[in-house]
């Protein structure tokens, strides 16, 4: 898998003191949203009872206090390997992760419910 | 999808259902309001396929962002007004109100949730020991096999029934399956409550959906080839990208059934549980998306800040240069973004200074949030009272003053790699000083870098100061502002003493009403110079508002209570505008959103310092062009605006370009003291960016010398060194040091803290008779410092008593509780400082009995829980009510009493109330002697800030009492002081006062008093602030820098302005003798204490010896001091006239004068004639026989009369003249404990020199001039390496 835009940063001793190993910055290839992720995989360390069904970029939930709580930032599209965020304008999950461009390209393969949903979304522009 | 349907599952309906059981009147009202508001909302989004949470997500995000905006109110209030939601438009505002109501309801529901939690907690017994790992195989979509079967089964279910099922009944069982302590969502947490709210909405939605029963869709089977391998039949479960590792549901259920005694759980079938589990998954998924959206919004906001485009340029410049100037106007985002840019560019130790404390806290919070570090400590703050810094901190926000203090302990500031100075254009004293210090540091510390950030004001000055540092200029984000000049007509202009005419300002309000329809939102902000001007406009404005019902008029200035200030952030109802009438506090420090109109008076009141009169002066000035622009800019932050200037354009052109920097206006005492303690020898040569007047430096140097902080050579004295370390005024610092010497530290700490913060007494309460009456018991007839002490102690008692809310207690008395919290913090900090510097011993821990400890522990847990809950929700923006606005003072305003008092909780968590109460109990049991001692200690700092009553005060009314200070005549009592309403205690007791008018002037009494005060402040009149009555002769004798006497000591002039006349020479002489003794002993004790403090720091083994001596000395001193203070010597006191002062002294070498009779040789010490005054200088403060006497043969005769006298110290009988006696005493006192006298710095060079003698050390073959103690010390240095025999004795 290519981690196209997930660049890794040189680790920093100060950062490690915080007890959190940052792997690098996750950047969505569609909307540019970015955040440092600290785990890539299916069993995030801050959510022991959760198993992800895709290999995802995860960080400790930045909006929650305490040790628990995770935030899945995004994953790679199963078709084009693009790194996309979980936002509804960038990707959707339907047994696998699809980036929105790929969904549109293969729209006929998706059930009607999703086609409807995507059609509704189309006029909505990304908030940029 | 119809709108109607869309509304069916809205939260308020849900809430109605809840209300069937838990009725609440207020929530019904708000429901109605909020449903009305919902009609205005036109938001649709898909909810069919996505299980409804699409729609919920968008709603929630909206709320989340609204609440965040509110949450950041505090931050906005401060300078950082960057990067936020545009809240100008109508719909936005409405949305906010709606969100507010919605949150309100949520809180209600949370409380219900709490109760449930309590009920269920008891039943929670088992289920812990089960293995949790899922071992079952999964299908290709990652779901477990068992689940698949259940799903099949579930198809058969009547969906409607599924969702009508009363889940609440099974909450306890469900809790045991899904919400155990180790699970993802734990019972009792806010998330848990949140989940149930979600779940109820989810049920509603599902029920409605199944009720709709849409015709089955044509089965999805496309003619095309399938390559993606997606399942044929749509299921919303496929949309979730995770699964939970709970133990198989059925297994769990079985287990539960066997364990539980009821059969209620029968209905909780596996498929229901599975459905619940699905809801649970949806909830987590929904939360994840919501959080991601929050993140996206944050990034979007950051990217849309003007400074964002300069990011690379700034980082590049900082890499290449040592100093970079970033200039950008308010709203460009520099304060929040630049530190982040630097951090992500790899800088690790970034210090960012701010002029204001609150800005440090709010910026740290904001930047922490933006760097996704809200709960970590990578971004921290440090201010005078507190800090959040840890080893992990990479960005530290701190005040300018604090960074300066760090320079004294870490002269190279090696802990930082880059220092960002924000708001340098504000030109605060500390900021200017810091610039100079850092400029010097850049040379010394090669890898240090600096970024100066300023508004686009006077940039060249800063760049030039740092040898042409590169400037990066960032445009602000301002909307166009229409400018109108509306100069005030001649007849409406007012002179200094007159009350401001509000008419021009009312016309501005009218103008707005006429020109702009009420439907167009936008508030008015009026800038006036001061409080009385604000009151005038607010009063008139409110009358106008009553007529029109279109305005809510709110004052804003720093002496308002916090709650009152916060009102300006509240929202006006539809069709009504806020009119905020403010001082220049709203120019930079407080940012209010939604302001569209500015009305600028062009005036400002500024404090200036008059060194001649030693008086602070609050004067009105025209503002600078820079401030005028800043004020104007406040109208264009969130949309196009209008600015009315209440002056002429030509006047504007004549304004000063920039405001006068603080350094030109204030005394430089503390700055100079700090400068010298940093090792900068000559403060006159300090390279300030714009140097202050030389006279200002000279004045401060003189003051510091006078206070004993600097030696004649302008080096620090031991006291000076201590003072430089204390982050307080020299005056307060001296009090603290003296407090430790006399072991009356607790009340001194309280008073010092009280004098260092704003007064807790609201001025506005003076018009409220109830508040004034309730305050009465707090008032002390000793003076304001004691009243403050009483108020503080009483407040502690109320807190510790726990029965009454201290908040209410304060409100009843018109007190600002915040100030007490500050006092506690400051007191604690003073204590730590004194301990750090060895002036105070560490106290013993307070011991608790077992049960008490347990009780306290439980209490702490409860408080922590309360605090945690509170921290979730920020202060709500309320909607202001039209009729409610005129409550200035808090009398009956009790509606928020049931709210959690978070300050109270934090306070109780941090402090041990029992301990606080105990010390304040000690304070209460003061005797008059204690009070006198306390006054002496306070005066050690306050002197020479004393005033004498005017001779004619008995003929004046209470409030018109007049006083004189040395430098300023005819000053009056500040109206807030206790003596202003009750000057009785200042007068001489009546028996003596009832004398004839003729005698009044030279009235003889033992009870004359003076007033000590903390400052002299001129507004419309010169006022004495914080006064305290003190015994006159005692204070003057103890603290005067110069005491000059005549031949028989019946006249003593203190510091060249107050004359004491004693009818009895003998009494006067006795008094003088005891003063000499006292002052010597005092200096000795102080020396010992300071010595002890440095030893304590070093853990020297001599400690006990010194301490023992000090304790002994202290006892002696305390006894002597008590005697002295209660002395009933009769005297009269008066202020000398100017001409008298000129001809005060006999002058040097007056031939034939009695003063120059051969100096007695009886004593070994030198007796110098005073070089200018004449007479004989006994020691550094006392000069004998230098006053011109009016022709007193008797006196001359007496001067030569030898009387037999026994020295009380050395018990030797002798026949001496008065002069000889004084001299003997001065020396005898010094000789008395030679062994303890090592305090050469303190007891004055003259006395110490006399104790020195030549001494030859045989070990090092050198001649020394040593005191006995020094000899011993010196010998000890030889004793260790080679145990040589004793050297020759002296
Ligand atoms: Zn994206
Ligand atoms: Zn793709």
Indicate the topology:
The complex is a heterodimer of chains A (128) and B (1290).
Chain A: E1 7-8, H1 13-17, E2 24-27, E3 34-37, E4 39-41, E5 50-52, E6 56-60, E7 70-76, E8 83-85, E9 91-94, E10 96-99, H2 100-105, H3 112-121
Antiparallel strand pairs in A: 1-2, 2-3, 4-6, 6-7, 7-8, 9-10
Chain B: H1 3-8, H2 11-21, H3 25-38, H4 53-71, H5 73-77, H6 90-121, H7 145-155, H8 159-164, H9 171-178, H10 190-212, E1 242-244, H11 249-259, H12 270-303, H13 311-320, E2 323-328, H14 334-344, E3 350-354, H15 357-370, E4 379-382, E5 395-399, H16 400-409, E6 418-421, H17 429-444, E7 449-454, H18 459-465, E8 471-474, E9 481-485, H19 503-515, E10 523-527, H20 531-548, E11 551-556, H21 562-566, E12 577-582, H22 585-588, E13 595-600, E14 603-610, E15 615-622, H23 625-633, E16 641-645, H24 649-654, H25 669-677, H26 694-706, H27 718-725, H28 730-742, H29 745-756, H30 769-775, H31 784-801, H32 806-812, H33 817-836, H34 850-872, H35 902-910, H36 913-924, H37 928-942, E17 946-949, E18 962-965, E19 971-973, H38 978-981, H39 990-993, H40 997-1000, E20 1009-1012, E21 1015-1018, E22 1022-1025, E23 1028-1031, H41 1032-1039, E24 1043-1045, E25 1051-1054, E26 1058-1061, H42 1065-1098, H43 1103-1125, E27 1132-1135, H44 1138-1142, E28 1168-1169, E29 1176-1177, E30 1182-1184, H45 1193-1200, E31 1203-1206, E32 1213-1216, H46 1218-1232, H47 1245-1251, E33 1253-1257, ...
Parallel strand pairs in B: 2-7, 2-8, 3-5, 3-6, 4-5, 6-7, 9-16, 10-12, 10-13, 11-12, 13-16, 15-21, 19-22, 24-30
Antiparallel strand pairs in B: 14-15, 17-18, 17-20, 18-19, 20-23, 21-22, 24-25, 25-26, 26-27, 28-29, 29-30, 31-32, 33-34
Helix pairs in contact in B: 3-6, 4-6, 4-12, 6-10, 16-17, 19-20, 25-27, 27-28, 28-29, 28-37, 29-31, 29-33, 31-36, 34-35, 42-43, 42-46
The site of one zinc ion has 7 residues of chain A, from helix 2.
